[in-house]
Each structure stands twice: as C-alpha cells, then as structure tokens.
Amino acid sequence: MNLLWLQASGCGGCTMSLLCAEGPTAVEALTDAGITLLWHPALSRETGAEALSLLQAVEAGEIPLDILCVEGAIARGPRGTGRFQMLSGTGRSLMDWTQSLAARARHVVAVGTCAAYGGVTAAGGNPSDACGLQYDGAHPGGLLPTSFRAGAGLPVINVAGCPTHPGWVTETLMLLAAGAMATGDLDGLGRPRFYADNLVHHGCPKNEFYEYKASARTLSDLGCMMENLGCIGTQAVGDCNIRPWNGEGSCTRGGYPCINCTAPEFEDPRHAFTETPKIAGIPVGLPTDMPKAWFMALASLSKAATPDRIGRNAVADRIVVPPTLRAKK
User: Fold this and answer.
1) Can you tell me the distance from the alpha carbon of 30 to that of 26, in angstroms, rounded to the nearest whole number?
2) pTM beyond cutoff 0.85
3) Residue 219 banded pLDDT, cuts 50, 70, 90
4) Domains of the chain (ranges plus CATH)?
C-alpha cells in the first residue's frame, strides 16, 4: 500500500510524536504492514522537482494512492482561496492539493485534532479560516463535504489528539493495511473506536483521590484535579493512561489536567485550562453518563468517608502519609 503524507497548517507535533513510537517504531510498523511511504515533507529525501513530479504522478493516477495522511488544519483564507498556505513551487494552495489528492485516495486519515476538526490552528477567532478535513470544529463538513467517502468507502478517519498518540496512528495504518477497519469501527466524530471507546480517566494514577473527591488545590498537589484545576479526563476519550506516552507518561501522570485534546473545539474552552468552571460550587462539566443528582450524592458521601491519608496526600506534592500496614490475623 502506498501512503502519502501532507503537512498543512500545524506545528508538526504529530509527526514528532509519531517518531516516538516504540515496539514497533513507526518505520517498523509501516514496513511490517506492507506500507510504502511515498513522500513526507519533513522525512523524505525528495524535494523540489522530484517531490513535485511525484505529487503530479499521484494526482494523475499514475501512482496508486492507498492512504492519504494529512497533518494540520486546512487554511481556507483569504476569502476561500487557500492562499494563506501555498505548496512551494507549485503555485497551488495546500487546500487545492488536499482536495485533489483526497479524491484519489482509497483512505483519508486526519492525523491530529487540527487536521480532524481545526484544533489550535482555528483558535482565537480563526483568522486563517482554518478547518478540519471533514469537520469545521464540531460541525460536520470542513474542507470535504459531509457526504465525502474515500475510495474504500470510509469517511475521513480522525486520529484526533494534540498531538496524537503515536500508537493511535500506527494502529490505524496497520488496520487499514489489513482491511480491518469499517465504518462501525469509528465513533460519532470519526475517531477510531479502539482508543475512542476509552476515557482518559481509565487508568489515571489519581483515581483513588477521585473516588473520595479528595481534590488538589494547586498543580503540584497529588489529588484529583477535576474539582478545582479543570481536568476533564472523565469526559475525554482516549486510552492515554492505559498505554502511556513513551511507555511512561500522560498529562495527568505529569500532574497536569486533561484538556480533552481529542475533541472538537477543545482549544477554546471559554475558561482557563487549569480552572474548573462552577455554578453554585458544582463543576459544570460532570463525568460522562452520570446525572448531576447522583454525582452530588456520591461526592458528598465520598468526601465524608475520605481517609485521613488520602485527604492529606491530596494537597501535598509528595506522599506524606503512607498506607497503613495491617498485621496478618
């Protein structure tokens, strides 16, 4: 299978993340899956006339295109021309190239939240009129219409994340190479369900504090960051704490709240990322699938039952009270 990778309006962070893939590495994963990387603007040796010749051959159908990966949002400005981002030496915008190549591809993959929904590139008033491949923020229909289907019959596959997890990219590509991904394997926002059916909350090292609603007050505290520090890992999809980044890390493992970077419009939460908006002292964003009344009842009981060890450790930057050692009976 042939894979072509374009970098549109973004920081390149998803490519940097992909290069951190381990066991297998990104190169090993592609090779083992029988995928040939035709061209990547940052990783391939071909530049200038060589790269242009390859792109033209793919566009003309002379070289089959099985997977088109696009990283970064599509800048549609000014006034729908796409000329805010031109592909050097071609006289054509990235927007134009992406539309043309997507029509040739058997599969189209949006790598990262910018490519999927607009992401950070679309933040702050969106002066470049950036959008995702098949979504404009949370609204269906971006560069490509809602009805778009790639050659194999699937919509754009949104491997969302900012940056996206390297394992999510390699696993998606391997599934496509094996013919093992269908429409039912994508969630309602086009994200692969193998990671989107999980919550960031699953496997979070702060779960004991969450259970007792023992909350951190500052970013250096060990406690749960949902109540005061803006963490929405109980609402955000992703298996970040089940398969940690680089085998070890995640946002919450590093002491920073989950900001739901796999979701549309996460970049403009209308409040500081490290603040929890509340009404009458109740967090506005409650855990997925939990009614407010049940959450309040559970929170009250949990706080009343919080062990001294958990309560004291929650507002400390290290464990100050170790677990009790119980003698065997």
Assistant:
1) 6
2) yes
3) very high
4) 2-194 (3.40.50.700), 198-320 (4.10.480.10)
